[in-house]
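Z., the sequence and structure:
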Amino acid sequence: MASQSEIAGIVLAAGMSSRMGQNKMLLAFAGETLLRGAARRALAGGLSPLIVVLGAEADRAAAELEGLPCDIVRNRQFQSGMTSSMHAGLAALPTEMKAAIILLADMPLVTADMIREMTHRYHDTGAPLVISRYEGVIAPPTLFDRRLFEELLANSTEGAGKQVVERHRADAEVLDWPAATLSDLDTPEDYARVTAR
């Protein structure tokens, strides 16, 4: 079985935030920016190394991570979509990594406890995939065993991660979370709703 130090984290935070109208990674949530909060919770969940993939306004975003033990990867092709950021993160993983959890920085209600539970389920079962389900909806964070890395990297179409999840769904371990936890912030209305809680 893999030790926890053999499970990396990849935080995807490179998008242009076109629907938000500003870089959502720099928005405040619970006393810190969305980006810093996502990285901090991933680290608190035991993921090491933690790779944060940046793209739009990368210099400003990188400044938000100051003092956190994470590795910054800049995706020069971030405008092509999330798959390119996933590929950039996977390519930066040390070869000894047994698995990686891919997280989205705009899901501020994903907790360190959720991340720890995913790693524990992986340790207990050795499943190639541990997925999150929110009252029937499959969404990140998602743990991929190294056995699936090549398959993820071979697909450059948008939604490549979802396609791999679908192909291996029968072998996946599933963790159920409250539907309210699935709060990805894409629009000003999303942001207002979540911050008002």
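The chain is about 30% helix and 25% strand. The domain at 4-195 is CATH 3.90.550.10 (Spore Coat Polysaccharide Biosynthesis Protein SpsA; Chain A).

Let me know what you think.
H.
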